[in-house]
Structure formats: C-alpha cells, structure tokens
Design brief:
This protein has 386 residues and is mostly helical. The protein has helices spanning 2-8, 15-23, 31-64, 69-72, 77-112, 130-137, 140-172, 179-219, 224-235, 238-259, 294-306, 315-324, 336-355, and strands at residues 265-268, 273-278, 287-293, 311-313. Helix 3 packs antiparallel against helix 5 (77-112) and helix 7 (140-172) runs antiparallel to helix 8.
C-alpha cells in the first residue's frame, strides 16, 4: 500500500504544502554542507590565525617551564600554572571557535534559510519504535545513506592516503629538525592536508546538496486527492459556499420583502413578474425596491395588497424593469417617461380614493423601448390598476 501511495504522488508540492512543512520544522538539511562550511572556515582561520596561535602556545610553554625552587615546591604551583595556561590557550583560540560556531549556524541557513518551529521540539515517541527503525534502515533512503557514507569514507581515505604518500618525506624530516623549524613545518603540512580534506568535503557537499533538495521536494509530492483537497480548502468547501450563498439570498430576500410596503407602485406581468418601485420628491429618480418572478412575484403582490400598495399590470414595463434594473438601483433613464405616466396615474388613483368622483382611466399604451423588452413582439396587452 505504501508503494502504491508513493506511485500516486506525482504532483509537485504546492506553496501552501511547503509552508506547512516549514511550520512543522520539515526543511531540507545537508550535514555534508555544514561539515564543509566548518572545515572551510577552519582552514581559513588556521591559515590566518595559525602562526599567531602557534607563537602564543610556544610562549606559554616556555613561560610554564620557567620557575624557581620556591615556586616548584609550592603545593598549588601545578594547578595554578595549568589553570593560567588553559585560560590563555582558550583566549587565543576563542576567535576561531566563534567563527566555527557561526559557520555551523550558517550551513543550514544557506540551504533552507531561517526557520523556527516549536513543533520540532515536541517529543516524537514513534522514533523509539524498533520496527520503524529497522524499516528505515532497510528502506531506499537508508540504503542511499549507507552508500553515501561508504563513498564519503572512501573519498576521505583516498585523500588521506594521497597526503601521506606525497608528504612522507617531509614528515620523516621532523625527527631531525629543531623545535621551531619542526613546528613550522608541521603547521604547513597540517594546513596542506586540511586543504585536501576541505576540497573532498566541498566535493561531497556539492553532490549531497542537490540530492537532499531532490529528496525533500520528492517526499512532499502530492496525490491527486491531496491536491484537490487543498484546492477545496483554499477556495472553500463548495457545499459550505453554497450554504452561505443560500443564507445570503434569504437575508437579501427578507430585506427586499421588508421594503415592499414602502413602495409607491408594483408593476406586474401580471403573474410571472413583479417589480416594486418607490419614489419621493427627495429622490433623483424612481428606485426599484423589490423584484422577482413566479413565487417571489406572487409574494410581492401579496405583501403589496396587504399594505394597500397600488398594483398595475404592464407586462412590457415589468419585464424591462426586471431585466435592466437591480434592487436598490434607479430605473434606466430610457424608462423615465413610461414610469412617469405610471406614477401620475397612481397619484390620480390615490386622490380618487381620498375625495371620490370619477375614477381615472389606466394608461393603455405604455411605450417601452423595444430594445429594453426581452419579449418584444410577444407582449401581452396591458391591464389596469389592481
């Protein structure tokens, strides 16, 4: 099953998956890069500070060997001398140790940058499982690490053998040289050998870094299902989004229905469409406060009748208003004249209801621009006020 899962991981890791891996402390690491950086810094430090350090050490040894009879017979002479010499040696080598510490920290930063994760500090007791440890040893990764360790050992051994072979004569001459010359020669030989080892470590790091990067990104590859799941999480669950849209539509519909009682007139189709218009002297133009078709149109008409809002059957105008004006928007400018006739008729009806007399006649020919009527040519005849 694990092999099948690995075969299904064919998609590269997304930026979000890489970020999550960094948050959990999973970053590309190369111990060879850190070792090469430390060796390179040590070589540079010893090349620059080595002569001064050797002179300081020889001076300390010379001073430690000079003492009189009273000093030699003191009980604490050896302890005080060793303590002072140790402190002096540590002071002399401190700059090199600081630089090595910086190199140790800089090695991982060169590969993965700065990353701090508290998750990496949490105990992982699964690492104590012997079965898991055995499976890791026999895995492809374990075999690759074994091959890398063998090649590393062989390369370093070859470098060491080459250094001994070509510097054997100089090393033999150390027995016949005086102390100062011998120490100087030993320092040069040591730096040369260290330089060869550094070159070997740099070569190993140059091979290991691309391999570690490849293995890191390879381990974070994703299956099709994981990729789809992440896309759903980023874009939102479709079912949840649909539920949110449904709730938003319900809220907007309730708000719209609450505005119907304030409408000045409701223009109907008469049954398929209903558009509620509101107009006051403070408005620049009549405004659509509610609209709908079928059941929503029926609900608008019911609320309008319950609150004595005038209803006018004008199918072309109802269709044009429904198509070209949204709730909360002013009516299109091309419909100003037609709606003005409707509002004039509504005001006449309101006056008739208040004072009585001859009822006004509903407008019979409301000319809606043909380009605004989605059913131009099939319009039903206008009705009257309800």
């Amino acid at each position: 099953m694990a092999e099948e899962s690995d075969l299904e991981r064919i998609y590269p890791a997304t930026p979000r998956r890489l970020q999550q891996a960094r948050e959990h402390g999973q970053v590309a690491r190369s111990r060879e890069l850190t070792a090469a950086a430390m060796a390179l810094v040590a070589l540079a430090g010893l090349s620059g500070l080595g002569p001064q350090f050797m002179r300081r050490c020889m001076l300390l040894v010379e001073q430690g060997m000079r003492f009189d009879h009273a000093t030699a017979t003191a009980d604490d002479h050896i302890a005080r001398t060793l303590s002072g010499m140790s402190f002096d040696v540590l002071t002399a080598i401190a700059p090199l140790l600081v630089v090595l510490l910086l190199a140790t920290l800089a090695g991982p930063l060169l590969l993965s940058g700065w990353n701090f994760s508290a998750n990496a500090l949490l105990p992982d007791f699964s690492r104590l499982d012997p079965a898991r440890g055995l499976s890791n040893m026999l895995s492809t990764r374990g075999l690759a690490e074994l091959v890398k360790a063998l090649l590393k050992t062989a390369l370093i051994a070859a470098v060491g053998g080459y250094a001994i072979w070509h510097m054997w004569g100089e090393m033999q001459s150390l027995v016949v040289l005086d102390v100062v010359t011998g120490v100087s020669l030993l320092g040069r030989v040591g730096l040369a050998v260290l330089g060869l080892f550094v070159a070997a470590l740099v070569a190993i790091a140059a091979i290991d870094v691309p391999y570690q990067l490849w293995r890191y990104y390879h381990s974070l590859r994703m299956t099709r299902d994981e990729l789809r799941q992440e896309l759903r999480e980023q874009e939102g669950d479709p079912q949840l989004k649909a539920r949110i849209r449904s709730i938003q539509r319900d809220v907007a519909r309730k708000r719209m229905m609450a505005a119907v009682p304030k409408a000045s007139v409701i223009v109907t189709n008469p049954t398929h469409y209903a558009v509620a218009l509101e107009y006051t002297e403070a408005m620049r133009a009549p405004r659509v406060v509610a609209k709908g078709t079928e059941l929503i149109a029926q609900k608008i008409r019911e609320i309008g009748r319950a609150h004595n809002v005038p209803l006018l059957e004008a199918p072309p105008l109802a269709r044009a208003l429904h198509r070209h004006a949204e709730v909360g928007d002013d009516i299109p400018q091309a419909l100003y004249g037609v709606v003005a006739q409707v509002l004039a008729y509504v005001y006449q009806v309101q006056r008739w209801r208040a004072v009585g007399g001859q009822p006004p006649q509903a407008p019979e020919h409301l000319e809606v621009p043909p380009e605004l009527d989605p059913m131009h040519g099939r319009a039903a005849p206008e009705g009257g006020l309800q």
